[in-house]
Structures are given as C-alpha cells and as structure tokens.
Amino acid sequence: MVFMPPMFRLLAPTARTIERDSFALALGDGRNIEVARVRHPRARRLRLTVDERGARLTLPPRASLASSERFAGEHRDWIALQLARYAPVSAVGLVVGESLELPLRGAMVPLQWRTGRYTRVHGDADGVVISLPASVPRAALVRALRDFYEAQARADAGRWLACYLKDLPRAPRRMRFRPMSSQWGSLSADGSVSLDLALVLARPSAFEYVLVHELCHLLRPDHTPAFWHEVESRFPAWRAERDYFHAEGRRLKAALRALLA
After folding, report:
1. Which 8-state DSSP code applies to residue 201?
2. Between 204-216 and 225-234, two packed helices, what is the crossing angle to 10 degrees?
3. Which terminus of the chain faces fewer neighbouring Cβ atoms within 10 Å, N or C?
4. Separation between Cα atoms, residue 112 and residue 145, nearest integer Å
C-alpha cells in the first residue's frame, strides 16, 4: 500500500538517519494496535506493510507525522484483513525424549532418541535419530537440528540444481538457507540465492518450484509475463505449488519456528 504525499505536506526537516517510533491505531473491530513507524532517508512515499510482526509504516524524510497517521487510519480495514492472515498458527515444538515424529519433506517421519557422547541429529533407514548426552543445553539441540535440516535442504537443492543449470546463463554465486519471515526465496544482486529453511518441511515438489522460481530470476529479474514463461517452461505445475503455499505456508513457517525455539 503506497501513497505519494502532496507537495504542501513536505514541510518537515529532512532526516539523515533512520528514525523509529510507533503510534496507536484503532481498528474497525474495536481493537487497538501499535503501528511501527520508520522515517527512512531513502523513502520516497508512504508505504504500509503487514507481516507476522504487525503493521509497519515507512515514510519519507519530509512527510509529517499527522499525514502518516491519517494514511494508516484510511487503510485500517486493509490492515485488519492483513493481520488476520498473519494470526498465530499453533505448532508443537520438540519435546526431548517424548516427541516421536519430526516433519520432513511433507511428511511426519519416525523419530528415535538415543544417548550419545555428543549432540547429533541424523537420518537412518527408519527415520531420524537424535543422540544426546545425559545433560545437554537446549541451544545445542536446536543447533544440531538446524544443521540437520540445512544439510537435507542442501542435498535436495543440489540434486535439482544439476537438472536446471544447463539452461541458465550462470550458476548462483552461493546458496543460503535461513528462516524467512514472509518470503520463500530471493535472489540478491550478486547472484546469491536465499531460501527459507522451512522449505525442507514442505512437499518436495513445492521446494523444487521455489528453487526454479529463483533460478529464473537469473534470466528475468522481474515478474513480467516473460519471467513466468521461463518458469512454466521448466516447471509447468508451478500454479499447484503456489496454491499449496497459500494453503500450507503459514503452518510450515510456524512449525520451523516452534522446532527451533
């Protein structure tokens, strides 16, 4: 949601640094929320965004505080609708010694607990095994689980990448996996691909689609019809995977957050 402030409102002094504050906003359903406000020296217009962290309003250096609050008020119904999309999704975390399944590649796989000299998470023919010393900090278990998921994600992406490289002008400079708040992937200016670690919990075809999507940005940096033609020529079923993320995406991200909490 964007709005270009009229010239007569550009009366505030130019900010050279990022300034942050917040203000209260009453929604139509009676709720009062806090809207994070960021005055950014490179902003050119008012921009309103909502994600799982809440509502955020970015404004240019010379926009007045009154105009920003008025803009948010004019879009209170849109904010309420977006907040509903990001309502918390319940997810079960990992309970040491008790959890018997672990999400992986669109399924719940059997989980075994064993005593070991050091913390380790690995797969075997029967599922996933977590080995722990008698006393281990929670942080060590979380690191081991995250390393396991990243290794699985890299193995899958590496296998698919080999199939698509022949039609690309170059390979990605590097590939990063990390939890992402709203996106599933991105391509940086230097050609590095970032992918959401939660993709390894999704069904493999959905993960593969996101990888293809980002690889096609090496050919087309936008989302024009020409870009989607490149995606469809490589992955004709991309619409089904997009629908899958619309239905399951928030649950997948919540599951990863709970497991790595």
Report:
1. G
2. 140
3. C
4. 13
d(Cα 130, Cα 134) in Å, to the nearest integer?
13
The answer for 245, left when phi > 0, alpha when psi is -120 to 50, beta otherwise, is alpha
Query: Using H for helix, E for strand and C for coil, what is the string for 10-61?
Result: CCCCCCCCCEEEEEEEECCCCCEEEEEEEECCCCCCEEEEEECCEEEEEECC
Write out pLDDT tens, residues 167-220.
898 999 999 999 998 899 999 989 999 999 999 999 999 999 999 999 999 999
Answer whether residue 38 shows pLDDT above 50: yes
| Domain parsing of the chain, residue ranges | 2-85, 138-259
**pLDDT band (50, 70, 90) for residue 125:** confident
Angle at 178 between CA 41 and CA 39, to 5 degrees: 15
The fold of the 138-259 domain, in CATH, is: Zincin-like (3.30.2010)
pLDDT of residue 148: 97
Averaged pLDDT, 230-259: 94
Query: Which residues does 183 contact at the CB level (< 8 Å), separation at least 6?
Result: 196
**C-alpha dist (Å) from residue 9 to 13, 61, 63, 205:** 11, 11, 6, 50
The encoded tokens of residue 105 equal 């590649």
Phi, psi of 40 (to 5 degrees): -115, 130
Q: Mean pLDDT in the chain?
A: 89
